[in-house]
């Protein structure tokens, strides 16, 4: 605060009379203020993002166990990744999870948004009630599902037995069902996706639907030819976000299964976490982190590339 | 469910048939979303044998003392307090520093501003796992592991998403207000504290709520840095809850989970529109 940020009142000085200084004192003062305001962010960027990125890249080419100094191993870590059984296992688990969780979240999220967009009595109540479970997140939601899907005492298997007379699967305890169970947990988190779709549906121009109705378009045709193209940028956005977050899945596996049974829910970030913070193999863990970054980046680019032909951007309401 | 939802469009008008289908689907959906939560509440009020009964009982015997037992059996009061102060400190700090930077990016002209703002946006895309390890090594060198400092200090840089969100807000506030302050002899700090901060309260509330949800639920941050059980926040304490028991006490575990979700839930009911706004902004502008 002691720095002079007060606005210059001397207008004569502010006039660009001298040729050598192109910027007026007023502009320079504004520029100085800019740097002061962004300084905390800049410090954070250098110390906690930029610096660590460089350090992480360097470490990924070394062996480092915190106690002794890093030993340069060149591409050793990256080569070892390809023959590491747990890398393959954890990547397979993560990819399988993403393959189930992403379409589940997008399709169900969109269908629920359409349902909540219908003009009915109690619309606000239904919207709140459908969204509210998304508030439960993290460890609590993991325990909730672990209890709902408990093979012995869980309410889901009890209902399956009572109502349909079938023996439910072992869910989280089964190598076949553990990943589908984790994808099913997204049911509680779907509110966010649903709200984004709902907001985009509310912004659609009614005239287009009226015109289509006059031309004799039926409901399904309107959905496919008007709704889907118009909200396709939102579908793309939600898909990318869902892909990114599925590749970072960790909490539910840590809390419910500890990666089991038989490594079937040992997700990539879980392996990265163990490598870094249980085994203190910081070099190898850094290489794992960079591979994760490359995978996420590649999948994002792939989604954007695929969507080039599919996403419709002409209608812009901003 | 799929085909029926789509069929709604077949009847362009709001026919009775269509209305019935919509209501049936809404009530089915309601059951799907609310029954797990009701089941959670029901279990939390049962005795342990009661919670394992077959067929399951929906109406519990109302063991309200379960909620007290949670605090007696495990150091749950401590966890709750840790979570409360840690969340408040990080939310206030992140929001304030984000607002500070957002003001610079929205209001002050300077060379390199566009490039720097591009960096803000690009840091949003970086997976936190890349910076996690070097950050740990820094705080380990500084001897700050097993304290909250490694989780608090980085908030000085704000959050990229919040900077982005608040910048949008500030750009919508008329610049004439700044001029008025300048005429009265006020500087940029006056403009920021007296004009923009008060006028951007809805934006700050939205940003703070999103940060609150992240901090309250985050497991991996505290898991990496905190090793003494008395320092655990709720997320970590809850994750280790079962360690104190030979057999999983599902009734107590559900009671503990409910305690952990109570603050976010209360906040949601009081500030619902800010929750929704935050999600919508992140979805349509992000």
TrEMBL record, chain B:
TM annotation in the entry: 20-41, 84-103, 115-136, 148-166, 187-210, 250-271
Superkingdom in the source lineage: Bacteria
Pfam family, one: BPD_transp_1
GO cellular component: plasma membrane
Major place of residence: membrane
Key words of the record: Cell membrane, Membrane, Transmembrane, Transmembrane helix, Transport
Membrane topology recorded in Swiss-Prot or TrEMBL: Multi-pass membrane protein
GO biological processes: transmembrane transport
UniProt subcellular location: Cell membrane
Residue intervals of the ABC transmembrane type-1 domain: 80-271
Family: Belongs to the binding-protein-dependent transport system permease family.
Protein name per its UniProtKB record: Sugar ABC transporter permease
Annotated source species: Pullulanibacillus pueri
Organism lineage: Bacteria, Bacillati, Bacillota, Bacilli, Bacillales
